[in-house]
Amino acid sequence: MHTENTYEFGLVGLGVMGRNFILNVAENGFSAQGYDLMPEKAEALRKEGASVGKTAATSDLNEFVSALSRPRKIMLLVPAGRIVDQVIEDLLPKLEEGDLLIDGGNSHFQDTDRREAYLKSKGIFFMGAGVSGGAEGARKGPSIMPGGAAEIYPEIQPIFEAVAARYKGVPCVAYLGPGSAGNYVKMVHNGIEYGLMQLTGEFYQLLAELGGFTNADLSEVFGLWNQGRLQSFLIEISSVIFSQKDPLDSGDLIDKILDKAKQKGTGKWTSQNGMDLGIPVPTIDTSVSMRAMSALKANRETADRMYEKPKRTLVDKAELEEVCEPALYFAFVMTYAQGLHQLSEASDEYGYNLNLATISEIWRAGCIIRARVLDDIASAFRSAPGLPHLLLSGDFVDRVSNCVPAARIVLQHAISNGIPMPALSASLSYFDAFTTGRLPMNLIQAQRDYFGSHTYQRTDRDGTFHTEW
Question: Per the CB 3.0–4.6 Å rule, which of 29, 150, 335, 382 could disulfide with 195?
């Protein structure tokens, strides 16, 4: 029990995410105190929290730490990088053995491992906990992905389970594994997010340019898709976006938004780490590259004038809509499959002992990549523990196979009309390669041996061989 001046949960960083998260905590019956260097942010929480449970806010770090019940549970929702290290150094002299710090930001998983080891030497527990769902999720229920020392998790578990999103009554949070497991899972979550967003954009462009779909048409189509197997947060909000009128001018807002996408790094980290592990995630790789491509706006506009495009052949609206739905579902499944495969391999490499069924389950609500298909994915991994890859699940063979012809048709339309769909292309090539028993790497091995004496193996006998070509 807490006394009048003792709070069960502390949070550092009272931006929109932090304020919303702490209000969520208080609304679910836990006393919570926030801290921010900027007095106006602390005041904003005091005003918003006046009628929401027991909350307090301060810009005095001593007051903040001394008012927390022990072991202290302090969550950081501050920008990743040096700021996290600075906050840790500011807090350390005021903490006591057994206290718990939780990094709720998008920190690189290797930074989390470093910080955990450092704080452990000081007698302080440290967890990395990915939080997905944006500001609205923080307030109404995010998906939370915690990792760290298993023995300290029960201290924060009741709070996390109370504030997390729920899927059919089940909290979308679970202890995922030791060390940086939570931050790693959130990183790959964000990589999958990059892939799904790029794919959604590609199908938007194809429908508009080859099918003549208006924004109103697109809003309706995405709304219909959201009622079926493509049901997901990104499809849902896309339907809303297409119907949004421009508040500053006439027309639709989507047509006034500059086509330059930014990124904060988590997608790139997923791609880089996939390369480090030797795990192919081409849909994610391509999606990261296309954000970089979008930044070349001036060059793209110049090249657009310099090079002739194929003459466009419009496709019947109904026909195009009919093939796009299964093609997009196929590509979504490929994106999840790649991300989950990376998680599987990383689990072995880093000793996380991840449960892919559990991860799929906590992604079903609250987070940006929530989707109906995750229920099926969770079932596939739940029914076959140790399944190395989603495409090797018997549950998905028909689901995927039935959509492949549509994906080929859509890509043919795009290629013949000069419409870039690199994420769909990467998804289909990934599927084709993964389902091909013999790839042309025998030639690559021969070439490597020819110019570098790198040796090769044979199909008909054991051993390593080299040829004087």
Answer: 335
